[in-house]
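Morning, I've got a small favour to ask if you have a moment. I owe you a coffee for this, so here goes:
>
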Amino acid sequence: MKKGNRLIVVLVILLVIGSSLFAQGAAEQMKKPVDLVFVARNTTKPAAYEEIFAAFKAKTGNNVELQLLPSGEEYGVLMQTRFATGDYPDLFEMDPGTKQYTKFNSANLVELTNDPIIWTRAQASAKAFQTLDGKIFGMPWGSTGNFGVYYNKDVFKAIGATEPKNYNDLIDILKKAKAAGYIPVYEAVNTQWPLQIYSLASWPTYVDPTIGVAGVAKLDSNQLRLNEIPAFREVLVRQVALRTMGLLQDNYMSGTYDEQLELFGQGKIAVLFQLSGILNSLRDKFGLDFVNSKIGWFPMPAVDGTGIATLQPASQILIPSKGENVAVALELAHFMTEKENLDIWYKHNPGVPAYKDVNVSLYAPELTVVEYNNQGKALVNIQNRLQSSFADYPKLLQQMYIDGDVDKVLNMLDENYRKTGKARVIPGF
């Protein structure tokens, strides 16, 4: 073989070896485990997430760190701060609704409009709820929940009470409970976020019938102000009246969510104004039989009727487009919607699912909510029907419990609502 040909052969061999080593190095780089950060509310029980994330690690080698942040309005503020400072998680759980696209700027979120996996598994209604101007950025997650009045059946039995036929009936029941030595209503004033349940659960019963769909549309476009709705003011007056009538626990200003759970489970409280997530917490502390046999539910009663149920759509998972591991984050999102993993989630968190073909058993109180919904006696939480938000609402309600000044709360809430709408550049604000 001529010297020149031998040189060419050597160069080819070296090129092949080099390419092979490069490919091997690239493959090893591709296989290097990724550490994802998933953020959720601290009211979320971590067991389901931990089980799903362990399965994801076993399949892909990628680790998922679960970070739990304070729930309620504070959660949204903390997430907005992280976005503002560039501290993006890889995925995060968020309240339902397309207002979150504005809140976090859809340009900073991964678009999921034509995702071929998520939308073949999700309920059609969930997809519709997540769509704004033909685009989707949130993956539905969890269950349709509710706001309302949860009561201890043993306490009701002890005082000879049945579910109220109207609001005056409810007040009479609470007075009977107090006379018998029970706590009529426990409000977690110190925790703050539960304070909004009373008024939000009252809105479909008292406010929607007076302002109608047209009124909600006007409120959404800043043509109607919150402090111009008499029915809303009356709701807050009723809430304050519980305090003045002595129907709250003695230490209501220092009341906490944890103590609320404990005393309710011990049979010392007649009713709670709460959301359906409390059922999971009560199951974990007192067992499934307690939740199914000892707890009842009814909507906030009307002056002349049983009232309208308040529904809370399923939450959603958002993926920041500026995160460090977007492709792997989307892989995790897809993995979470596989039937086996959805079954894990609903095993730990029973509820009306946002996905098709999953194994789930509803708690007994939720069956009553389903009945109201099937009868057309249910509406979605007003906050999920508006683009702006009731900013600082729990904190304002806490102040209302201190001084009883309903008008001050309404005026400050209205101001915050309009400021938030303007900041989000919502048309009309």
User: Anything to note?
Assistant: Residues 145-312+369-423 form a domain with the D-Maltodextrin-Binding Protein; domain 2 fold (CATH 3.40.190.10). The two ends are 84 Å apart (CA to CA).
